[in-house]
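> example.struct
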């Protein structure tokens, strides 16, 4: 089978491959954590709560009609409220469902196969009020940010962003570059080898919400799938196996 045929087959639905497989969930193995937790010495930043965004209301139909991939951004920074809004609309947790008294699944602002939500949201912050430039991660269950690396100079950070997006210079002119990493075992635990197509579909749900949320606050984004895997993973300090980047989207005011 040639590589094109292999790619096409990956896109097709074939749950018969699960017929002779016992998933780790069925085998009674421990469920993976719902999110990567922060270390005890981590710097945590409080975000604006969903009920306190105080942003201009928009018409959903008009927002959908206006949606475009936008590659030109102004120098106007995101406010912390705007960034909080974009994070909540793309991965925000509305409810945690318990099983036997323990957190089991999360109900979020985006759908996910089996409510497994196998993604972490990282941010390369370049121009956001009240935040130093650097690498951050969204703690969705807490609606907070964790500062992963804020020691790098802004100019060097922009160079790295351009390099890892294969010379797409607009990616370093945004206010915040959203990077979604996948923790595949969160879905593999339930769906084993049938989980991977669904995970990529889930990534599309997340990014579409970012598109619409950006449009609603006079901002824009442009999804990026062409990037240097090793460079992005290295910037985020990911191991490239148990967690790795799958999707990027710079966002800024337009």
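> example.seq
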């Amino acid at each position: 089978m040639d590589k094109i045929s292999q790619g096409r087959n990956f896109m097709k639905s074939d749950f018969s491959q699960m017929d002779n497989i016992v998933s780790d969930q069925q085998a009674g193995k421990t469920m993976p954590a719902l999110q990567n937790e922060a270390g005890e010495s981590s710097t945590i930043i409080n975000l604006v709560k969903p009920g306190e965004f105080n942003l201009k209301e928009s018409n959903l139909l008009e927002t959908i009609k206006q949606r475009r991939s936008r590659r030109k951004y102004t120098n106007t920074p995101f406010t912390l409220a705007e960034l909080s809004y974009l994070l909540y609309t793309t991965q925000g947790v509305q409810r945690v469902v318990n099983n036997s008294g323990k957190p089991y699944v999360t109900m979020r602002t985006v759908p996910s196969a089996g409510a497994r939500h196998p993604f972490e949201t990282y941010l390369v912050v370049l121009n956001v009020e009240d935040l130093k430039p650097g690498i951050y991660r969204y703690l969705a269950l807490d609606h907070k940010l964790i500062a992963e690396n804020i020691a790098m100079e802004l100019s060097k950070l922009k160079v790295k962003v351009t390099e890892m997006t294969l010379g797409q210079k607009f990616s370093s002119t945004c206010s915040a570059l959203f990077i979604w990493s996948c923790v595949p075992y969160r879905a593999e635990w339930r769906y084993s080898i049938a989980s991977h197509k669904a995970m990529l579909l889930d990534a599309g749900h997340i990014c579409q919400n970012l598109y619409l949320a950006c449009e609603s606050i006079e901002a824009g984004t442009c999804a990026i799938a062409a990037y240097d895997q090793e460079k992005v993973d290295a910037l985020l300090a990911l191991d490239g196996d148990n967690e790795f980047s799958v999707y990027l989207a710079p966002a800024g005011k337009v």
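> remarks
The chain has a mean pLDDT of 95.
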